[in-house]
Here is the input.
Amino acid sequence: MQERTAIPDSKINSDLLRGLLGTPMWWWVAVIVLALIVGAGVASVAITFNMGLGLWEIHRPIMWGIMIVNFVFWIGISHAGVMISAILRLSYAEWRRPVTRAAEILTVFSLMIAMVHPLIHAGRPWRLAYWFLPYDFPRGIWPSIRSPAVWDPSAIFTYLTGSSLFVLIALIPDMAVARDRTTGWRHYLYSVASLGFRGTPRQWKLQTIAGILLSGLLLPVFVSVHSIVSWDFATMVSVGGWHATIFAPYFVIGAVLSGVSAVVTVMALMRWLFHWEDYIRPEHFDALGRLLIAIAMGWLFFFVLEFFVAIYTKEPAELALREMQLFQWPYNVLFTIFIFAALIIPVPIWVSRKMRRNITVMFITSILVNVGMWLERFIIIIPSLARKQDLTFVWSTYHPSIFEISIVAASFALVGLLLLLFSKVFPLMPLFEQKEGQRFAAQIRVGRRSIPGVVREE
Amino acid sequence: MQRPHLRRTSREHELSFAFPDTPAEAGKDILSRHLRLTSRFWKAFWVLLLLFGVGLLGLALRILGGFDDRAAWGYEAALFAYLLTTAQSAPLVSIAMRIVRNHWRRPLARLSEVFAVVGILNLLLFFPLLMTLPPQEGRKSMWFGWPGSPHIYDSLAIIFLVLCGLAILLFTSMPDMAVLREQASGRLKGIARRLSLGWVGSGREWKKLNLGLGYLGALYFILLIGVHALVSMDFAMSLVPGWIDSIFPAFHALSGLQSAVATIIFSMFLMRAIGGYREYFGLDQFWALSKLLLAFSLLWFYFWWSTFWVYWYGRAPSEVSVLKLIMFGPYAVPFFLSFGLNFVVPFGLMLWNVARRSIKWPTIAAASILVGTFFDRIRLYVSAFSVEDVTGHALESIPATHFPDLIDVLIYVGFFSGSILMYMVASKVVPIISMWEVKEWLRLRVVRTFLRTEVAVVAKPE
Here is the structure.
């Protein structure tokens, strides 16, 4: 049952532009706290670049630490935008309207942050110049075109470009509204960003077609991004636990699970912080909850296949690795937290309609899922490296250093900070989508009842 | 201005229905078509029955030949997997669309659910195939030597799948059977009385029906995916040493989803062309399903590529042998046919909205997928059944291509005919268009003027 109320356009404008036109105290407090955490992370990066990667706790054979775990995690979060925005747009799901912008910008920011991680992990990012400018022709020191260092950034850049365009095109009508209500530098900025949008039928048509086209084009790109990241692992035959054919779809669906959960987190925060109770309603959390159940079940299927087929091989190395993940400290505890947080606790809660409509519950479970999914990446990467191969001369566990931890914490703070800064310049919820939703709303009489309905869009 | 009913137009347009406007008229129209029994039906019935008998004879001959020569059963395994992938997966289209509350599913819901009856026929193939499986000692098995495995557990899973499909058909038919109970005559009246299970249409019964269909649908979905996983592992992957492919069960299930959509599209076309229900399967249904066809064709490629890429890049000798066996060696022809017909053709066609929004092109894409899946199951199952030594870590030698013999041909002709026969008979007992769902649809959908155009407005009661 839809719970919408009739809201006039003027109220939609004033409500949704509230973030741009006013600055409450909580905004300043949040920005300062987040900026401090980001500052600590930046300092850790600077110290690392100065002193070298020896400061971190990565060592042979565990050469990929939580920086790569966090890279995979943020790539996963970036799947929120396309999953929510593109798929729901293509399928004309009516409940998408308040969700799309938050999902799209989460994609852009998380991709930007994900890209930074391998650079920091490289230790000497300025040497990236050699990648663009091969310098030693006689010795044949050219970057390998087959290297993940080429294909990973290519995929991520393509996705980032497409996602940014997606956000910009959806912003055009809202920029025109903001342009007409601001003065000074903001008026200039919105005039440029609105690209002369006047709301003519032709402009609306072009904007709609561009949105649909980009949705369709972004879908294969979003699948390719995490697939390519997964193949960084899966094509390595020598590392036990990684050489699995299911890795690509398994990573993608895991990413979608964490991405959609992150959207739930952001939506709950938006509702509470900006008082958008009329726009982000329990029915939206209900729909997202149902979507999350389906995604979680799909993820469970892939998880079971990945784990089961590994045991099915009866290869001693595989069995030892799975034993390590399940029974050896500290991986056993992390594995337990992961499976409870990502699946066993949230999914039964989401089955209840009452719980799905409880925003606090949805907020907590969405965070739980992402705690679990972060640990899932840790469980995939670290134990496999710890048991790299038979002839590894040192086996030990891995404890991240304070520098690594502060950089990871800074990545989370940076996403929050960027979202807050974005909310000061651009509306976090699309105005035109809300207005369109109001126009598409209808009541239909069936017998003695009046039932809410919608105009079918296609 | 609100119009209570939809307009009749001659154009193929999503706002237009050629069938009656009001729920009462629609019910009457479906009923009259359902009760019509032509001489063409009886001719087809007897021919198919005869061919089915030939198939049963073929199966009997195959069983008399014994179970030791596993390679001889390869084509039967492929046929069993094909029927599982197409007919037994087809009810999922209705189930999934009911879960996501799509209205366009309504005319095709029953068409999809009736395919559950083909599962009974597939059991005839399944039980002999179980006897051909080698003992688990010395080879990889997903059952790790559990007592009674895989025979008991595979059988239970498949029997439950068939029963669940039939239960869905029975449940969803109850309101229509109650109508038939009142309006039909002769033997059909008696059958309808029994199958309506005392349905009177109270509010409580409707609530129970919707709830029951939801639970049964979810159960069928889980069982179907589970059976795909079991069959793919027990009857293909575990018979080939070195074939360790964690995505294969998921690929098998996905292929089932793709083929299910293709089966429904092709059946809708047949129902339009020769079934006498042209007006009920319009552009709306073809257009919506063709989008799914595009998505599943892309996923088919993605899942296949995931295996191919990891194996090809990994270059492990055991995996290279598997690639040779199922893709580039003795079964290269069925593999490339499958690749072209399951991916290249449907993707190339369904990429274009003008093709998706038509009757002809989705039907051609669906036919392509149904043929492609046939070759896909042959390259997977006949090749796996051809491997003699199922122990060891890697495939030592690649077996030669195994071609079908006369008995295989008899069984194929018989079981395809039998499947069509069972479907035809079931569709004459249960109305092939769900009367109650179409009537509900007509109550929930109106056409209104919107600015200078007309649009469909859909009620969302849930």
